[in-house]
Design goal:
Length: 56
């Protein structure tokens, strides 16, 4: 459920930035976008690993 909310919020922020002609709060190049994806995957992976090793 939280993943759907996160995607929805990201969509709303993107639409709002485009609607009001604000600069998008993300890097405009492919390398920058891949950096954001890599940080997200790293964050989720660390969260999973910490929960796994904690015994949850």
């Amino acid at each position: 459920m939280s993943a759907v909310l996160g995607l929805g919020l990201g969509f709303v922020i993107g639409v709002g930035c485009r609607w009001f002609d604000l600069p998008l709060p993300a890097p405009p190049r492919l390398v920058g976008a891949l950096l954001v994806v890599a940080m997200t995957v790293g964050f989720l992976g660390a969260d999973y690993a910490l929960a796994y090793f904690a015994g949850d």
